[in-house]
Structures are given as C-alpha cells and as structure tokens.
Amino acid sequence: MAVFYVNRYCSHNNEQSLTHVFSDWAAPAKGDTMTTILYVLILVAFMDTFIQLPIITPYAQELGASNVLTGSIIAVYSLANMAGNVFGGYWIDRFGRKKMLLTAMTAAAAVLLLYPLAGSGEQLFSIRFLHGLAGGILIPAAFAYVGDKTVPENRGRKMAYTGAAIGIAAIIGPALGGGIAASAETEYVFIFTAVLFAVTVFFASRYLHESFSPPERGKVSLQDFGPVLKEPAIFKAALTAFALMISNGTLAFALPLKIEGAGYSSAFTGALLSVYGVVALIVFLTPLNRVFDRVHPVPLMIAGMIMIGASMIMLSYFQLLIVIILAMVVYGSGFAFVFPSMNRMVADASSAVDRGKAYGIFYSAFSLGVVSGSFLSGAVTEWFGLPFLFASVMILSFAFLLFSLHHRTDGWRRNSIIRS
Predict the structure, then answer these.
(1) From CA 108, how far away is CA 245, in angstroms rounded?
(2) How many CA atoms within 13 Å lie on the side-chain side of 357?
C-alpha cells in the first residue's frame, strides 16, 4: 500500500515515474559540500544519548534513587532537551552555528564529568537536567549546519547520511556503554564520552567554518518564531517527528515484553532492534538514498508511517519469530523513509535567518514524542495490554492527518513531487 501510494504521486504527464527514479539511482553523485567532520559530530552527539541507555537506570539505583526518582532522572533529560531545543534555536540563529555547536559540546563534556561526582539520586537528576539542556542546543545546531551546507537538489541524500550517523550511534552506543561499564566502572562511560566530545570539539574548531554570516545574523529576531510556527511544512515535519518517536518509544518499551511473552530469550530483543537499525542503514548509505532527492518528502513520510503502522500490527497479532523479524524489517524501512524526509522538509522550508529556530521547534516535537511514547505505551499496556495495536492506530491516524494537511495546504502539486 505504501509503495502504491508513493508511486501514485510519482507519475504525471511528462514527469519521471518512480520506476525511472529507481533506475537513476546509480547515477554518479555530484560534488560533496559536506565535510566528514560534520557527520562525525552528529554521530558523537547521538552517541552521547545511546551510550547511556544500558547504564543510567542501574547507576541511578546505585546512588539510592527510588523507582519514581529513577524514572524522573530518565525523563528529565528529554524534558530539558525540549527547553534547550527552543531557546537554543534562537541562539543558533543569533550567534551562529559554529559558536553554538562548540559551546554546546564543551558544556556537554563538562557536565559529563559531573556524573562520577554525583552522590545521590537528586544530584544525578540535576546533572541530567543540565545535560539535556546542552544536548538540546547541540542537535538543532548540527542540523541547521547541514541545512546551510546543502542545496535542495541533493539535500535529501545528505539528510540520509545524517540518519546513517545516528543509526551507527544507535547500534554501537549501547554495546559500547555496557561493555565499558562491565569491564571497568560505570563512571568510565561518562569520562570516555567527555573525552570523545573534547576531541570532536578540537577537530570541529579547526575544520568547520561558519555557515551563517554576521550580516545575516543581524536580521535575527525573537519575533521570527511566529512565522516559523505558522509555516505548514515545519508543522507537518514536527507532527511526523512526534508520531515517529511515539512508535519508537512503544517499540523500546513493549518489544522486550513481547519477546519474553513469546518464550524467546531476552537476547533476541537487542538483535531485533539491530535488524531495524541495519535495514535503515542500508537505505541511508546505498544508492537507494537517491529517492530522497527525487521524491517530495510528504509522500515518503506518509508511506513510511504506513509501513511503521503495518509493522506495529504485525507485532501485535503474531508470535512467530520469523514474523517478528519481518516486522522489524518493515519498521526499519518505514523509519528510513521518514527520517531524512522530515529533516529535508524543515531545511527546505526555512532560510538561514530562521533555520536554527525551525530545527529547534522540530526537535522539541521529537523530544516530546520520546517522553510521550514510553509513558503512553506503559499506560496502554497497564490498562488494555495492547501497546502495539495502540501505536499502530496512532501512527496511521497521524499519517491520515498528514495527508489531509498536505492536501489542504499544498493541493498535491504533482509537478513538484519529482525533481527533473
């Protein structure tokens, strides 16, 4: 259904069909305008989040935190992210991408060195709050940089590369964090990450050049938030990000329960999560990523959400391991369709003057989805016992809403869906 949906809007009069697009994937890429250091910076920024996943809960409990406080310690990072996203978005436009990138990474490195000094759960809570603020500034700054350094003709593929950087961090981060904590002490995970940030800051300060000139920064105003919030494309991207992270939170919460209930070893959970990550990486890094330059973002986003909804239905109704694996392949494909498309949409809909604020708003919706996903899936499991079915209804409802919004605001201008 999702493929038919994309194909429907990929053929019209003299436009290229989706089949022609697929055959053109092997065409040589044009000059690369991005530096390797920028992709490494995004990888490191997300490694900071993923490397702590297996250790933050036991570390909080070692410090005497109750279950409620432990949950708050985990949630406050994403809540602080939201504040950092919004305020950081303005500062990114006001002071420039490079300055805010280096400031946020330096602040994050300093905060990471505070973790080993925490003596109680309450102190860890405060450290996580500061850490979330720094991370909330860092991510919009990095993506505003990518938006500045790319052109619309190849922006979709470049956003796919940023997705690959995040996917690599998601695959190796938890294993690395767990391995360091098991072979040494938990505190060494934070020290290692702080050193990684310091090294990245050193190279970024030398090899990254400011993409937003001082004359442009003089035009930045707080009043620009209003037009950015009213921009339909940014609203649709933020809506999609919120829905995507609800599905991701449901997967993180309910998949281990699903595997345990089906009678399989808990080791399968990590392997299944890796399946969807590897599938997404295949799309991000192979010539398949040319679809993000050829096809308009909204059909790809809707198709990806339909795939994710289908995978949630499969996980809800089937117990066979082969079907669960297939569901993760479908989920990974849907995620790969959605992530670069919505990031490209934000970059295309914003200018250099307001791109920081645009990504700040976008990633605040991302952070809200992270918090809401785990909470809603836990509540639905407690009340009804059907977290995956609930997630599928939500994601498909958001897909229909996105279809309706795009139909109303853009009129499905087919001549803009395929780039010649």
Answers:
(1) 23
(2) 21
Identify the three-state secondary structure at position 251: helix
What DSSP designation does 233 have? H
Identify the three-state secondary structure at position 3: helix
The H or E element that residue 235 is part of is helix 232-261
DSSP class of residue 224 equals G
Q: Which of 229, 211, 217, 239 is nearest to 357 (CA)?
A: 229
Of the candidates 71, 187, 91, 189, the residue with the CA atom closest to the CA atom of residue 133: 91
What are 152's two structure tokens? 């619309």
Contact status, residue 248 vs residue 395, Cβ threshold 8 Å: no
Residue in this structure with the two tokens 């992210």, named with its chain if needed: 81
Q: Report residue 306's pLDDT band, with 50, 70 and 90 as the boundaries.
A: very high
Instruction: Tell me the angle at which helices 155-183 and 121-149 cross, rounded to the nearest 10 degrees.
Output: 150
Residue 419's pLDDT band, with cuts at 50, 70 and 90, is: very low
Q: For residue 265, what pLDDT band results from cuts at 50, 70 and 90?
A: low
Residue 245, exposed/middle/buried by CB under 10 A (0-12, 13-18, 19+)? buried
Top-ranked range on mean pLDDT: pick from 97-101, 250-254, 319-323: 97-101
Residue 145 contacts residue 350 (beta carbons within 8 Å): no
Residue 127 and residue 52: Cα distance in Å, rounded? Answer: 14
Closest CA to 237 of 348, 132, 136, 162: 348
User: Which of helix, strand or coil describes residue 147?
Assistant: helix
Q: For residues 170 and 403, what is the distance between their CA atoms, to the nearest angstrom?
A: 30
Burial class (CB within 10 angstroms; exposed 0-12, middle 13-18, buried 19+) of 71: middle
Alpha-carbon distance of 68 to 322, in angstroms, equals: 37
Torsion of CA 22, 162, 35, 175, to 10 degrees: -120
Residue 243 to residues 2, 110, 117, 204, 331: CA-CA distances in angstroms?
17, 33, 37, 33, 13
Residue 126, burial from CB neighbour count under 10 angstroms (0-12, 13-18, 19+)? middle
Two tokens, residue 131: 């850490």
Q: Three-state DSSP class for 313?
A: helix
d(CA 420, CA 9): 14
For the record, the structure tokens of 128 come out as: 């996580």
Residue 29 DSSP one-character state: P
C-alpha to C-alpha distance for 310 and 335, rounded to whole angstroms? 12
Q: Of 66, 82, 78, 69, whose CA–CA distance to 125 is shortest?
A: 69
